[in-house]
Amino acid sequence: MEVKKYEILKQVQNDRQLMMKKLILIDDHKMLRKGISFYITENSDWTILAEAESLDEVPGIIKQIENNTEDKILAVVDIQIKGSTDYSYNGFEAVKLLAKSGIPSVIFSSHDSGGFIERAMSAEVGAKGFVSKLSDEKMLLDAINTVAVGKTFVQPDLVSSLMEMNSLFSVLTKREVQVVKLIQDGLTNEEIAQKLQIKLTTLENYISVIYDKIGCRDRNSLLEKLT
């Protein structure tokens, strides 16, 4: 049976499309990575480019693909991954590194409260999508496909939590929001003061004002509001 020329061309185009859509999976649970990998490759035209369980592996992955200008590359990142940094949530740092290299990320995490969503989707971190691990794989695939075409995606039933957190942050100044986010990252007062290049007493004044504005008595109650 003769195969028409346009059918061969169509097959080549389809094969090329498959090659161009590649995922990086960053999660410190190997079984979860394997489950996501299996579902994605069986139910879409995405392939898995690389896997990592630690923030420390991300620069190496980026270096390997830095000259790849043809493929569409996207990352799925958990918030709480391993790493040698002092941060509690290394996934945010991974997203930042990937964004600097032009690789968009979808956060896939069990830390799905408004505070984490706001932090992930902020301009500072730069995630383009957020999906809870309590959802199913189809939701994650929907997020991946949405982000791949240049749009943002937040799991629909998490949008109200994000709006509440945005409302909470609206009463704070830009500097106060910076302080809150560094507290959320797990930094001590001394580390925050050093990072922001301000005196410790100045930082303590900021924190006191933040507590008054948000209605918190201490760091723990602030973190409860964020989680």
Task: Write a structural description.
The protein has 227 residues and is of the alpha/beta class. The protein has eleven helices and six strands. The chain has helices at residues 5-20, 30-43, 58-65, 90-100, 114-121, 137-148, 159-169, 174-184, 189-196, 200-214, 219-226; strands at residues 21-26, 47-52, 72-77, 105-109, 129-132, 153-154. It has a six-stranded parallel β-sheet, sandwiched between helices. Helix 6 links the parallel strand 5 and strand 6. The radius of gyration is 20 Å and the shape is globular. Residues 1-13 have low confidence and may be disordered.
Which descriptors apply to this entry?
6 strands, Arc Repressor Mutant, subunit A, Rossmann fold, alpha/beta, 2 domains, disordered N terminus
Task: Briefly summarize what is shown.
With 227 residues, the protein is of the alpha/beta class.
* Fraction in beta strands: 5-15%
Count every beta strand, where a strand is a DSSP E run of 2 or more residues. Answer: 6
Structural class: alpha/beta
CATH topology of the largest domain: Rossmann fold
How are the elements arranged and paired?
Layout: H1 5-20, E1 21-26, H2 30-43, E2 47-52, H3 58-65, E3 72-77, H4 90-100, E4 105-109, H5 114-121, E5 129-132, H6 137-148, E6 153-154, H7 159-169, H8 174-184, H9 189-196, H10 200-214, H11 219-226
Parallel strand pairs: 1-2, 1-3, 3-4, 4-5, 5-6
